[in-house]
Design brief:
Low-confidence stretches: none
CATH superfamily: PAC-like subunit
Structural class: alpha/beta
Distance between the termini: 33 Å
Number of strands: 11
Number of domains: 1
CATH topology: Rossmann fold
CATH class: Alpha Beta
Order of helices and strands: EEHEEEEEHEEHEHEH
Strand order of the largest sheet: 1-3-6-7-2-8-11-9-10
CATH architecture: 3-Layer(aba) Sandwich
Shape: globular
Largest sheet: 9 strands, mixed
Mean pLDDT: 90
Number of helices: 5
Length: about 230
């Protein structure tokens, strides 16, 4: 048995060691409407981002994922890197989160993710997810680590998410980053349910691209339909 397979704690497996210049950390995990994961996959495809690390943990569910080619792998978070002119992007996504009943596991995993993000030089984070609403209305809500950032992203077209809650890694990673004095924002696409909401994922992706100063070519979103 491989030594790393004795999972009594999280294990990070590095696939490569890319040169990262002032990287921005972007996290998109499954949750309400799968919004964060859809947005992350659009980012990966837009930038042709390359995988460079994987995170495994005994806190992840006890089932395996099967690819479209029938290949199995353990549940994991995946880290991709993409070069840009001013910053690199580090994009983290995955098919799972720890059980919402296991609060300690959520804290442990988010702390581990932030440890890794800091170790590779990330000083700004973006978490992406969904927020449930009763009516069909496309918006991107904003939560941030400071009033300055909240205002800055509101001026880019977001709506302040006031007096709400953000569950799971999308919220915890942001709040724990604030405790470490790392700046960051959470981008929350409005969604009506738990079913994969591609429109909400697209809206978060487009909002972040605008904030990064990137132009999306016509037809990109339509031609890059992510898997549920």
């Amino acid at each position: 048995m491989h030594e790393w397979f004795a999972l009594d704690k999280p294990y990070l497996r590095k696939l490569s060691s890319p040169q990262l210049d002032n990287p921005i950390f972007v996290q998109g995990l499954p949750g309400f409407g799968n919004v964060g994961r859809i947005a992350a996959h659009l980012l990966i495809r837009f930038f042709d981002a390359k995988p460079f690390a994987e995170l495994y943990s005994p806190s992840f569910p006890d089932y395996i994922a099967i690819s479209s080619k029938g290949i199995c792998h353990l549940p994991r978070y995946e880290f991709y890197y993409a070069p840009m002119e001013k910053n690199n992007l580090v994009i983290m996504t995955g098919e799972i989160q720890p059980s919402f009943d296991d609060v300690v596991a959520h804290y442990d995993i988010c702390e581990y993710v932030l440890d890794f993000a800091e170790s590779i030089g990330c000083r700004f984070i973006v978490t992406m997810g969904g927020v449930p609403i009763a009516e069909d209305k496309t918006q991107v809500y904003i939560a941030a680590t400071s009033a300055r950032l909240a205002t800055e992203f509101m001026e880019k077209g977001g709506v302040i998410y006031s007096k709400g809650r953000i569950v799971g890694g999308t919220g915890l990673t942001l709040a724990l980053a604030k405790e470490r004095k790392i700046d960051g924002v959470s981008l929350l696409g409005t969604t009506m349910g738990f079913k994969a909401d591609r429109e909400a994922g697209f809206s978060v992706f487009k909002f972040l691209m605008k904030a990064l100063g990137k132009e999306i070519k016509e037809g990109f979103v339509e031609n890059n339909q992510p898997e549920e």
